[in-house]
Design a protein that fits this description.
The protein has 810 residues and is α+β, with helices and mostly antiparallel strands.
Length: 810
């Protein structure tokens, strides 16, 4: 304060009004007041000078107080001032206001040089406290190394800042600089646009996030949080902007690490395919953690087997590279082996389970050969981080992340993150490896239990195709079968066991063996399914507790007779077969399905259809007709149309089956698909002979006569003697033990079949006759003279048959 103005204040009656910030007293209000109130006291304590700010503070004019003791203005004189002869250097007091209330003030005193007068300066106490707190706040903020404070003028030129060389671009920020002197041009332009908007509108900005780069290091980005508010003078005119910058780079990096760890948890492990899992892992790492990423696995891991204890160069092959568009060196190619590397301490650390990050110079020193460096190191790479894939005590391989160009080297916290990612990735890859081993074993078991892909019998030519679930990654219990039966007939089977994996394949094998055994008994289709259903019930009872409900199957069983050109079939909850006629028309066979094999107590029904020679019967499992985007009815119509278009007489059945599976099955089906195609044949009428046998013992000699004439006509004189004996025994047994009507039938093909049918349901059996027995040797002779013999039961009786091989058949 100018002391001359103070001395002249009372005499001139000056009342200097201030238009600054309003103050408040105890009563709750002061007129406009700004700055310090000043007064001059003489040696007796009387007021001799009174300023305009003093009038603003107390409301008293100069003429009201000049000449009066200052004690009259004090409402409550402090105890330490009673009787004092000198004014204290500072203190607090309560002054009267002209309105009658009081004001708490803080004062300071000093003697006016060359006289006994005392200059008193006073300000409202709460103003002083606010000023002290504000000063302390500014001092504390300025001391924070993570918070940069900058004050800009109206031209956004730096007026004052606490920025130090380690808070911004490595050099001091001097007053007079602009943001473009510190930041890259584009980043400085963006920040100045925000500050200019604050300056123009007065609206503050709070925690606005920006990614910026320093001019001296444009490749490295920093995350800044900007808060800014406008500065104004006493009249409210804008004078500049105050800005607070908080560097959130560490928080941003930590958040990115958390996001990356979460993405690894979400994306890696969703597939049980080894290569797909490795690729997911590489795709997550690049470019989030490195510019390039690769995953290398032991060769045995690709096959689902355990790796060797010590993995070295040549033992591993590349499983995944990311990004897909990157240009990799010649020595890193997907699917190819990794070349061996010389022994080195860094490499030993990786082999011992450590995650190691090192620069390109260390890598060159480790490799040792410039040609090998060029062969293995990506272009512009400056650092690499390698982490072993270790899970369940096995080292499956390693993941590598490369950084190129002007990106930062790997840090220690990034190495810790890489170790966590490698641990999770290794577990996912090992799960896929174990799954692959399990299902390869199941597929191998399934394939070994299936019949030959093609068969060629007098009754039909067949071809079967099988597609495991997931394109080979899984299997269940789908199967097909073509069983050659006596009398040139053929049994056609398709089935589907509940469940997946080795248990389903094992159940399928047991059912297939049981069906083959029952097929040899030549049961009717409905009777055979009934017995198989009983077997499934026993298997379910033998299953561990909790697995009873998962033992079950569906099955379609049919028997085609090339002599009658008919097919008898029954279904246990299985989709109906499709019949493709020689003229190219196709339709699903109208069959009445019974319950699945897991259920019992419900009968099965046999359906008999006529089949023209050259027709194709297609038996299949529901994996071929059921998909997520269509129901089984739509799938059956599509299959029928495809069969009609594909089953041409000039096309091999196996080729047709493969084409149908490729066209109808999903790329990675969720269920197995099996298809059996059977192109039927017929025995010419000229190769069969049939006679009715009268119920008279004399018919035996007639039967021998019929046989003699027919075999002579066929040119089978070499079989005449044995055939006469066989027919004599079979006809004799039919007349003696059976009931009319009785029939005799001969069938000529690669074997000569003799059949005798009667209406009795008694089961003949082979027994050893004693020397004194007059009979009981008939079936023994039949068994010795023919190649094989047997008996089958039908709805109207039984048929005993015998086969003899024909040496030369046209």
């Amino acid at each position: 304060m100018d002391i001359k103005n103070v001395k002249n204040a009372c005499s001139a009656g000056a009342s200097q009004k201030s238009t600054g910030v309003s103050g408040t007293g105890t009563s709750g209000g002061l007129h406009a007041f700004d700055g310090l109130a000043a007064a001059v006291l003489d040696k007796r304590g009387a007021v001799v000078r009174w300023t305009g700010t003093a009038e603003d503070l107390t409301g008293f004019r100069a003429e009201q107080v000049c000449g009066r003791p200052v004690q009259e203005l004090v409402a409550d004189l402090p105890d330490d001032l009673h009787g004092a002869t000198e004014m204290p250097a500072s203190g607090q007091a309560r002054l009267w206001h002209q309105r009658g209330d009081t004001i708490d003030v803080t004062f300071w005193t000093t003697k006016v040089g060359g006289s006994a007068e005392v200059l008193v300066l006073a300000a409202p106490t709460h103003h002083v406290a606010d000023h002290e707190q504000g000063t302390a706040l500014l001092r504390a903020l300025s001391a924070q190394n993570r918070i940069t404070i900058a004050v800009y003028d109206a031209d956004l030129t730096t007026v004052q800042t606490n920025a130090t060389p380690d808070t911004l671009d490595g050099r001091p920020v001097q007053p007079g600089t602009r943001l473009s002197d510190v930041l890259c041009a584009k980043d400085a332009e963006n920040l100045e646009a925000v500050l200019r908007q604050v300056l123009e509108t007065g609206a503050p900005v709070v925690r606005s996030s920006h990614l910026v780069s320093w001019r001296h290091d444009p490749a490295r980005q920093h995350a800044l949080s900007l808060s800014a508010f406008r500065l104004e003078d006493a009249r409210g005119r804008p004078t500049g902007v105050a800005a607070l910058y908080v560097d959130n780079t560490d928080q941003m990096r930590a958040r990115r690490h958390l996001d990356l760890a979460r993405e690894v948890a979400e994306r890696v492990g969703g597939s049980l395919d080894i290569v797909r899992t490795a690729q997911d892992l590489a795709d997550v790492l690049a470019p989030a953690l490195g510019d390039l990423a690769s995953v290398d696995l032991a060769h045995s891991v690709f096959d689902g087997e355990e790796p060797s204890k010590q993995l070295g160069g040549g033992d591993m092959g590349n499983a995944a590279l990311a990004p897909a568009t990157a240009v990799w060196p010649a020595g890193i190619k997907r699917g190819e082996s990794i070349p061996p590397l010389p022994d080195h301490p860094l490499l030993r650390r990786v082999r011992h389970g450590e995650t190691v990050a090192f620069g390109i110079d260390d890598f060159i020193a480790m490799v040792g050969y410039p040609q090998l460096v060029e062969y293995l190191v990506p272009k512009d790479a400056h650092s690499v981080m390698v982490a072993p894939l270790h899970s369940r005590g096995l080292t499956l391989g390693a993941i590598s992340a490369w950084r190129c160009g002007r990106s930062d080297p790997f840090t220690e916290d990034e190495a810790d993150l890489m170790k966590q990612i490698a641990s999770r990735g290794a577990l996912a890859i090992d799960n896929a490896r174990r799954y692959t081993r399990e299902h390869r074993a199941a597929v191998a078991l399934q394939q070994s239990l299936l019949p030959p892909a093609t068969t060629d019998t007098p009754g039909a030519e067949t071809a079967g195709v099988y597609l495991p679930a997931g394109g080979g990654a899984g299997s269940s219990g789908d199967w097909y079968d073509a069983i050659a039966l006596p009398s040139l007939r053929v049994a056609l089977v398709a089935g589907d066991v509940v469940g997946h994996g080795i248990p389903a394949s094992a159940t399928m094998g047991r059912l297939r063996a049981a069906i083959q055994t029952l097929a040899d008994l030549e049961l009717e289709p409905d009777e055979l399914l009934t017995r198989i259903a009983d077997l499934v019930q026993r298997l379910a009872a033998e299953a561990p507790p909790g697995d009873h409900d998962v033992v079950g199957a569906t099955c379609l069983y049919g028997v085609y007779d090339p002599v009658t050109r008919r097919c008898a079939m029954a279904s246990a909850g299985h989709p109906p077969p499709v019949l493709v006629r020689p003229d190219g028309t196709a339709e699903a066979v109208g069959i009445s399905p019974g319950p699945p094999l897991a259920l019992s107590g419900m009968p099965y029904e046999t359906t008999v259809i006529d089949v023209e020679p050259g027709s194709v019967l297609a038996l299949y499992t529901n994996g071929l007709v059921e998909r997520g985007d269509r129901d089984i009815g739509q799938g059956l119509r599509r299959l029928t149309e495809a069969l009609a278009a594909s089953c041409r007489p000039d096309r091999a059945l196996e080729e047709t089956g493969q084409a149908l599976l490729a066209d109808l099955a999903d790329q990675a089906p969720r269920d197995d698909a099996a298809l059996l195609l059977a192109r039927t044949r017929a025995v010419p009428v000229a190769d069969t002979a049939h006679w009715e046998i009268p119920g008279d013992p004399a018919a035996v000699s007639k039967a021998r006569g019929w046989i003699t004439r027919q075999l002579t006509m066929w040119g089978l004189d070499d079989l005449l003697f044995t055939t006469e004996l066989i027919v004599s025994e079979l006809v004799t047994n039919a007349i003696r033990y059976g009931r009319p009507p009785m029939d005799l039938r001969l069938i000529r093909h690669h074997v000569l079949v003799c059949e005798v049918t009667d209406s009795s349901s008694t089961q003949p059996r082979l027994r050893r006759a004693r020397t004194t027995d007059e009979g009981g040797r008939g079936l023994f002779l039949v068994a010795q003279l023919g190649g094989r013999w047997g008996c089958r039961h039908g709805q109207n009786g039984k048929t005993i048959w015998s086969e003899q091989a024909i040496q030369e058949y046209p």
